[in-house]
What does this fold into?
Amino acid sequence: MTQIISPAFKRLKLKIMKTVFTKILVLAITLGSLTSYANAKTDIILSSKLVSKGDHISVSDAAGVVLYSGSINYNGNIKNLYDFSQLQDGVYTVEVNKDFEIDINSIKVKANKVTFLETTSKKIFKPVFRLNDSQLIISKLAMDSNEMDVELYFKNDIILSETIKGSDVLNRIYKLDQNLKGEYTAIIRANGRVFVENFKI
It folds into this structure.
């Protein structure tokens, strides 16, 4: 007999999966802080696996559905802090948003065994914004992408739009009009991402 699954049931199932996975991760964080010494290894830990308190982590499935998203509460190795073994068999994307970069790792879960797919690891360098009086400095390492689109807004009006290209470092210094006091917004598009910085002079 063919079983018909309603959209409402699918949404309920997905919601339950998200809730269960969230509880598993919260539990794993608590246990991870107690077992990290027991699981310590002498080999070199890749920087993409190291996380710090305040970083943001998200886990999504192969379809791009975010199963978990939240702040990291401990410093350490992501392998020890989070238990991904309770996920259903499949490939998942683990993204850690840090101060100056975004680390993206793929993991494969099969029969409660977790494997980090090292060949798919990716690092995105975030643009850095610095305001010095009326000068706005925007810089970004170009190791992952050699161009970025910049848009500057004063209130809701666009005052500049350009594409910056380079080989090592993408860098621009913008001299803003000191007479235009108020709220500004800088929008950077690079690596298929959008980065927004709000500031005022």
About this structure: The mean pLDDT is 80. The chain has two domains: 40-124, 126-200.
